[in-house]
Amino acid sequence: MAKTEAPKPILGTSPLRKEGVAKVLGATRYIDDIALDGMLFGATVRASIARGRILDIQFEQKDDLGNPIDWSKFTIVTANDIPGENTIVHLTKDHPCLAAEFINHPEEPILLLAHREKAMLPAAVAAVKITYEEWPGVFTIEDSEAGIERAKAGDETGVIWRGHGHGGGNNTFKTYCMLKDQTEIPESVWAEAAYIVEGEYRTGAQEQLYIENNGVIAECVVADEAVQEVTVQGSMQCPFYLVHALELVFNLPADRCRVIQVETGGAFGGKEDFPSVIGSHAALLAMKSGRPVKMTYDRAEDMVATTKRHPSRTRHRTAVAKDGRLLAGEIEFVIDGGAYATLSPVVLSRGVIHSPGPYDWPYLRVDGRAVATNVAPHGAFRGFGAPQSIFAVERHMDKIAGVVGITPEEMRRRNFLKSGEKTATGQHLSDPVDLQGLLTRALREADYHRKREEFARTNVGAVVKRGIGFASFFHGSGFTGSGERRLNSLVEIELNAEGMPNILVSSTEFGQGTNTILCQVAAQTLKIPYDDVLIAQPDTYRVPNSGPTVASRTAMIVGKLVERAAEQLCVTLVGSGFLAEGYTGEEFKDGAKRYLAANGALKASVRYQAPADIFWDDEQYRGDAYPAYAWAVYVAEVAVDTRTYQATVTDFHALQEVGKVLHPKLAAGQIEGGVAQGIGYALYEKCVWQNGRMANNQMTNYIMPTSADLPPIHAHFEEVPSIHGPGGAKGIGELPMDGPAPAILNAIEQATGIAFGEIPLLPEDIFARMTGTDGAEKLNPDVMEPAIAAAVGEVGD
Amino acid sequence: MRSNPAHYEMVAPATLDDVLALLAHAPGVHTPMAGGTELMVALGAGRLATRRLVSINHLRELRFISTDDGLVTIGSGTTFSDVRRSAVIAAEFGLLAEAASWTGSVANQNRGTLGGNIVNASPAADSPPALLAYDAEVRLVSVRGMRTLPYREFHLGYKKTALEPDELVHSIVLPRVYAGWVGYIRKVGTRNAQAISKVALAGLARMEGGRVRDVRIAAASLREIPVRCLATEAAVIGREITAETIQAARVAMMREARPIDDIRSSAKYRAAVAGNLVEEFLRRLL
Amino acid sequence: MAGLAAVRFRVNGVERTVEAPPVKRLLDVLREDLQLTGTKEGCGEGECGSCAVLMNGELVNSCLVPVLQAEGAVVCTIEGVSVDGRLAPVQQCFLEEGGAQCGICTPGMILATHHLLEKYPQPTLLQIQEGLAGNLCRCTGYMRIFEAVRQASERGRD
Ligand SMILES: Cc1cc2nc3c(=O)[nH]c(=O)nc-3n(C[C@H](O)[C@H](O)[C@H](O)COP(=O)(O)OP(=O)(O)OC[C@H]3O[C@@H](n4cnc5c(N)ncnc54)[C@H](O)[C@@H]3O)c2cc1C
Ligand code: FES
Ligand code: FES
Asked: Which of B83, B134, B162, C20 is least buried, going by the fewest C-beta atoms within 10 A?
């Protein structure tokens, strides 16, 4: 056989996205583009109060316009119809599938309706009149804490979650204490510190705002008055999460609950836990009606009723040496979980572990708490707790620098973690870490020093004030702690009849490029053309459970398994003599076909093996929190217009070390998209809450950046291969969400001289501080004319 | 969709006269729909009260920009894109062209009309400040004939206009007298594009001998209707632009602004920014 | 209940007649009556542009067009951009530059790009930003989209 040149490496190049042609043709079928014969449409009747008890449900005979409603044509599902448990299981079972008696958040689902005509549903939903006994709600972290305090004195009216059977306690889903080296901070450290710097930082809820709303189609096989099998297809990240939810709701074994992910129009975490809710609902309607049922939310329902990023409050108290070295830190990190636990414990965990930032703390204590409020449950969103706690620590580092009188840069340089050192969980950083080098390069790319000096000069008396700031941070790839061990992911590659390998994973594509990079990994490992590798649609009847598509784990963890499976496939084919070393792509297919002719089928199957040197202790909350970390320095440049108080990001440099970059274009796209979301998080996207309900649940009032609002976003990479990922890759998906907000607020501090500690930071907030109209001290008098201050007081009389 | 389209009727009579006859036949029964960028949003959200619609989008009689020596007349069915494409508007009524350019997105500008913008009468709408600054007139048409009204008398109260139920806005008339005037317009929205204004200000002035000979200042989102800021104008008319004049104008603006707190912004912010914009406008006259 | 209207218009070069309530959204008529599901609904209120189509050569959001107002119109949807399944240059550039991630905004974005390049064959960055500001994309941060538009305009030149 003629020896041919080995194919060029495909990892590190940018082949076309696997499903890209269909997407640009508009031929891709998302869930709302699919119709099944005889299909009904489903809708949800939701609570109009935040907290209380259902007293009565009436079905009006006429709609609001006076048209009669023929209820016999509707399928109606209540909690009583649930054949299994009335719960949407995540980590606990506190979250009901449908409210039976008690209401714990606005828009909580109570009843489900289905009808042949979608247009009939809105009037019918409105014609279900529910009366309640309404109880006072708990809407903020502070309300929730006050409820806990009052309970200690015997008044339980402010307790909305009791932790019964789920761990946690009054209004508290979960607490964590992360104590470096299991050693409390000695009093002497505080006593002898040159400075003790305190700060409080807050972040708001953020809507994922995928452009495709949540949606599913469910089918149900019912025989002998019992559900035999449930099938749900839809827009989602984690098909096996939904399988698990259906098992309980329908009291069925996993192999009778089939879930298929169809092309998903954006997710960002918003389709991690929520599809378990809408999927179960549609399946109940399918059960009751005996028909396929499609449920898709419109934008207003999706925004008002589904998960958002957890709001947070972080308090720092830091002992600092005269030269700026960190001596000890106490961090209190609290997130608002909403009405049910859902994923809050794991969001909290990631937030806690990222809260120290990439710094060396001799002593550190972090107390984390997820509390309950009467707000729709907060859930997964890109970054998963880390953007919140990293915002706090990176603002705090600038604050400390100011107190000590050194530059923000020097502050970081004196405290960066280095290779060989230990993180706050005691993880030994054995991979090379070069934060000093990253910082140097990032500042150079952004022309930081020159600009910082220039802005300091030109801002005096300027109407538009400018600033430049940065944040340095890290993000752990993969599930936290022993998560990967527990997931125990399985990946398979089979040969199809044409001798082409087909990757079988439950990892889903929702824009990030899962299909493409996994096929690249297999192609490179098998030394065959990228176009010859296929990837199966995630259908739980067909693909193994390779874990959820979350936590920046797909490229690194699943990718590694694909690499190993591909190796195994290759060994089998070569070892059995059907394929000679040095084969071409065509020879691979021929050899594979001959193997199939002789043996029938070939499927390589590999399971996650926790690296022997990775260890995590859940009890002590210490050990190797993540197999690998991505490291980054982001630099933001801003302009603050003192006439409109609007801060705009004018330039953005994002430098990261993410191991091997598997696909440069996809990687840059991930970073740019994440930075855009981060800019939105910092300056635009505000959930306006009224009694626990999102009041601005429309795209016109929830402001995400348009193409005219973003600066040039420059993504830069350093590549330090990691042994844990395929070809040396680490995770990348969540990282870009972490850095923008603190970098931007650090830059705004240079521009305005004001240390803002809360996001989203809207022009109204900047106005309030600049003009002192919130009662805060007036820090920068030259931006405000006395006339405004005088006149502002007169408005509204 | 939160309403059932089957519950709505819409007709599209061939000519303007036919539409007017329909409106006259049962005044208030049919609601005209031009570009639909307001009404269709309301329909989609399930809050369109009216059940009967008459489409006027296709009426060529209402979609025109005509010029003669003294006037530019813009048909009510003229879209924002039409306004942006018009050479005469760009040259002589720059504030209107600019306002049109930031009214929603390109797709909205291709459908949304000037008539719909003023009849919808949102206090935050983008074209009214410019129209007020140019002292536009509106022509209203019905089977009873055509009447003309100064645009500043068109808005009567929150979402209330001088339009009678059997009338349509026919056109908007702009006097071609602004050569030599200095214009200013700025929208402060929730973001750079496709935004609803938190405050917007249009200013137009003519200087003579270092003094303000004539001035018009109009604003959006400061009151329940788009308004001319007469007190602010009074504070600067006949004066030189000095620190005192600017100060007086700012104070006057603060006094006459009556903005509100809503989910988009706060009253204090709106008033303060309006003051800042007034100052920015006046400095441009220096 | 109000009656149906028979509306005739041309979609992607084909004469069509539909019977529908006159205020039924063009978006729903395309998707439900004509099975042209490439046009997407992201918001239903004119904000996101994922339902954008060309109507008489102008970019419009089909969620805000009552079908009666499409009477006699020439409509082009994403399905009409490619020729016999062959990608148009704009589509090719979106594909190559990573302008489509999840793909849900892509049909509207491509039609908006089409409209933009018709108006400005060599658009500046500002013109691109303004021209696409009505098309929200949550995945890309727009940078790859700008690049795709630039590439498409380059290709249009030669
Ligand atoms: C996404 C989006 C963004 C937007 N952004 C902006 C913005 O930035 N600035 C802004 O000002 N507006 C904005 N709008 C609002 C809207 O586009 C404008 O108000 C537009 O001018 C309305 O015109 P139309 O023809 O589409 O109105 P329609 O919806 O057709 O009608 C609006 C009202 O006017 C009446 N009407 C229309 N024409 C006449 C007439 N000739 N005679 C009598 N009555 C008439 C109708 O009966 C109705 O009550 C936006 C809308 C959307 C959907
Ligand atoms: S669906 Fe039409 S603009 Fe969003
Ligand atoms: S590619 Fe997902 S919204 Fe644009």
From this structure: B162
Q: Which domain holds residue A671?
A: 312-480+623-796
Q: What is the DSSP string of B54-87?
A: EE-TT-GGGS-EEE-SSEEEEETT-BHHHHHH-H
Confidence class for position A620, pLDDT limits 50, 70, 90 = confident
CA A120 to chain CA centroid, Å, is 35
List chain A residues with CB under 8 Å of C81.
26
Instruction: State how far the Cα of A178 lies from the Cα of A355, in Å rounded to an integer.
Output: 10
Report if residue A378 sits inside a domain: yes
CB contact under 8 A, B41 and C133: no
Do residues A684 and A744 make contact, with C-beta atoms less than 8 angstroms apart?
Answer: no
pLDDT-based confidence at residue A780 (cuts at 50, 70, 90): very low
CATH code assigned to B60-175: 3.30.465.10
CB-CB contact of A448 with A470 (8 Å): yes
- Ligand 1 neighbourhood includes B169 CB (under 6 angstroms): yes
Q: How confident is the model over A548-604, as pLDDT tens digits? A: 988 789 999 999 999 999 999 999 999 999 999 999 999 999 999 999 999 999 999
The answer to whether A706 contacts C85, with C-beta atoms less than 8 Å apart, is no
**Residue holding tokens 């891709």?**
A28
CATH of B5-55, one of 2.30.30, 1.20.1280, 3.30.1360, 3.30.43: 3.30.43
3-state helix, strand, coil in chain C (%, to 5): 40, 20, 40
Q: Which of the listed residues A267, A296, A325 is the one where a domain comes to its end?
A: A296
- The CATH class, in words, for B182-284 is alpha beta
| Contacts with C139 from chain A: Cβ below 8 Å | 266, 511, 669, 673
Query: How many A/C residue pairs have CB atoms within 8 Å?
Result: 166
Q: Indicate where chain B has its CATH 3.30.390.50 domain(s).
A: 182-284
* Contact between B250 and A785 using a beta-carbon 8 Å cutoff: yes
Nearest CA to ligand 3 atom 3: C137
Interface pTM, i.e. ipTM: 0.98
**Ramachandran class of B105: left when φ > 0, alpha when ψ lies in -120 to 50, beta otherwise:** beta
Question: Residue A774 CB: number of other CB atoms within 10 A?
Answer: 12
* Judgement on whether residues A399 and A546 belong to the same structural domain of the protein: no
Q: Is C72 in the pocket of ligand 3 (CB under 6 A)?
A: no
Tokens of A563: 């690499």
Tell me where in chain B the CATH 3.30.43 domain(s) lie: 5-55
| Cross-chain Cβ contact B12/C63 below 8 Å | no
Closest Cα in chain C, distance from residue A497 (Å): 27
Q: Where in chain C is the domain with CATH 1.10.150.120?
A: 89-157
Is residue A279 within 8 A of residue A260, CB to CB? The reply is no
Model pLDDT for residues C23-51, shown as the tens digit of each residue? 999 999 999 999 999 999 999 999 999 99
What's the CATH number for C89-157? Answer: 1.10.150.120
- Residue A795 is predicted with a pLDDT of 29
**A35, A29 Cβ separation under 8 angstroms:** no
Instruction: Find out whether the beta carbon of C137 lies less than 6 Å from any atom of ligand 3.
Output: yes
Burial of A515 (0-12, 13-18, 19+ CB in 10 A): buried
Pick from A118, A122, A703: CB nearest B190: A703
Q: What's the pTM?
A: 0.96
What is the tally of structural domains in chain A?
3
Residue ranges in chain B whose pLDDT is less than 70: none
* A56 within some domain: yes
Mean pLDDT of C1-13: 91
CA distance A246 to A261: 15
Superfamily of domain C5-80: Beta-grasp domain (3.10.20.30)
Q: Could you tell me if A288 and A417 lie in one domain?
A: no
